[in-house]
């Protein structure tokens, strides 16, 4: 794929003691695309997202976002620069309302995430922007409900709304369909198609290959912290190393 590179990772390595979670990963994400990231459990996919977003500091290598090195930045600064993400394990403020969860999620505000909400004008603007995101994710009727009361599918959609609150140029989705039933998964596909125009690019980790096929423009496959295939989604899924590592095909 050609176009403007929004994320450029070069020879990225991350070790925990003697265990190498990332072993020389290099890849690019282009503006406007959805990149599917696949691989078996333990392949290093979430470790890669954690390193991109600053939860882990890389052992070696480079991460350039919109042309700037971010590998040494703290996670809050990476978020403020426009990298948003969701998690395998949903992270919500369960005792806050759905609306409040989105209002406090905007990482662009300086130092204190609540500072802009203490004045009337700031709170009114935050509320309007949050309601627009809830409308996009079809959650407006639940705006005043506690996050703890949401269904699993709606909790996932709220987490996506929270990630969108920072107006990210790059969205990292870590197994967004995990635990969803068929109807919720179909809704998720519609949601992602609807929001992709709001972000510069997306990286999607997913074990559901039907989602990878329907949503991804390209795919990267990992195993044991290494990139083993990259390119057209169908070609990657049929790659011999991918079939051996991920699909359990020894032929």
From TrEMBL:
<keyword id="KW-1003">Cell membrane</keyword>
<keyword id="KW-0547">Nucleotide-binding</keyword>
<dbReference type="InterPro" id="IPR003439">
    <property type="entry name" value="ABC_transporter-like_ATP-bd"/>
</dbReference>
<keyword id="KW-0067">ATP-binding</keyword>
<dbReference type="InterPro" id="IPR032823">
    <property type="entry name" value="BCA_ABC_TP_C"/>
</dbReference>
<keyword id="KW-0813">Transport</keyword>
<keyword id="KW-0472">Membrane</keyword>
<dbReference type="InterPro" id="IPR003593">
    <property type="entry name" value="AAA+_ATPase"/>
</dbReference>
<protein>
    <recommendedName>
        <fullName>ABC transporter domain-containing protein</fullName>
    </recommendedName>
</protein>
<feature type="domain" description="ABC transporter">
    <location>
        <begin position="7"/>
        <end position="249"/>
    </location>
</feature>
<dbReference type="InterPro" id="IPR027417">
    <property type="entry name" value="P-loop_NTPase"/>
</dbReference>
<dbReference type="Pfam" id="PF00005">
    <property type="entry name" value="ABC_tran"/>
</dbReference>
<dbReference type="InterPro" id="IPR017871">
    <property type="entry name" value="ABC_transporter-like_CS"/>
</dbReference>
<dbReference type="Pfam" id="PF12399">
    <property type="entry name" value="BCA_ABC_TP_C"/>
</dbReference>
<dbReference type="InterPro" id="IPR051120">
    <property type="entry name" value="ABC_AA/LPS_Transport"/>
</dbReference>
């Amino acid at each position: 794929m050609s176009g403007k590179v929004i994320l450029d990772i070069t020879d990225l390595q991350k070790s925990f003691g003697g265990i190498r979670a990332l072993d020389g990963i290099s890849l690019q994400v282009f503006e406007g695309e959805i990149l599917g990231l696949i691989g078996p459990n333990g392949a290093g996919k979430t470790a890669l997202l954690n390193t991109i977003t600053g939860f882990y500091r890389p052992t070696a290598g480079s991460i350039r976002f919109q042309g700037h090195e971010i590998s040494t930045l703290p996670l809050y600064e990476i978020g403020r620069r426009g990298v948003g993400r969701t998690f395998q394990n949903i992270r919500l403020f369960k005792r806050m309302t759905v609306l409040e969860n989105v209002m406090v999620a905007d990482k662009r505000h300086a130092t204190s995430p609540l500072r802009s909400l203490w004045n009337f004008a700031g709170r009114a603007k935050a509320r309007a922007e949050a309601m627009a995101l809830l409308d996009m994710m079809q959650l407006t009727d639940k705006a005043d409900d506690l996050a703890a009361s949401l269904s699993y599918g709606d909790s996932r959609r709220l987490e996506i709304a929270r990630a969108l609150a920072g107006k990210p140029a790059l969205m990292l989705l870590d197994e967004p369909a995990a635990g969803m039933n068929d109807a919720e998964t179909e809704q998720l596909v519609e949601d992602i198609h609807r929001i992709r125009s709001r972000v510069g690019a997306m990286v999607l980790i997913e074990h559901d290959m039907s989602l990878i096929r329907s949503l991804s423009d390209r795919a990267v496959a990992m195993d044991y912290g290494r990139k083993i295939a990259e390119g057209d989604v169908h070609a990657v899924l049929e790659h011999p190393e991918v079939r051996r590592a991920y699909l359990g095909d020894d032929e």
